[in-house]
Specification:
By secondary structure, this protein is mostly helical. The protein has one domain. Helix content is 70%, strand content 0%. Helix 1 runs antiparallel to helix 3. The protein is elongated, with a radius of gyration of 17 Å.
Length: 80
């Protein structure tokens, strides 16, 4: 079980890293970071590459967090 969680955690970590690296930057410098970016009505066009990368990033992050927590709980139970 623990090895399976390691594998799932590793695969989701790689998916998370790749999906973040493939996303395009829409920031326009420091003003966008402070909330002064352009106001768009929708974030992404439906079916676009950016939308798919956003969904993959979100799912990979959730899977990675859950598997890391499961590994931590299982490992804690072994050594406690």
């Amino acid at each position: 079980m623990l090895i399976a969680m390691y594998v799932v955690s590793g695969l989701s970590a790689v998916a998370l890293i790749l999906s973040v690296m493939l996303q395009t930057s829409k920031a326009e410098g420091l003003s966008a970071a402070m909330g002064g970016g352009s106001a768009e009505t929708s974030r992404f066009k439906p079916g676009s590459r950016e939308e798919w990368l956003y969904k993959i990033t979100r799912v990979a992050a959730i899977v990675w967090i859950v598997t890391v927590l499961i590994v931590a709980v299982i490992s804690y139970g072994r050594f406690a």
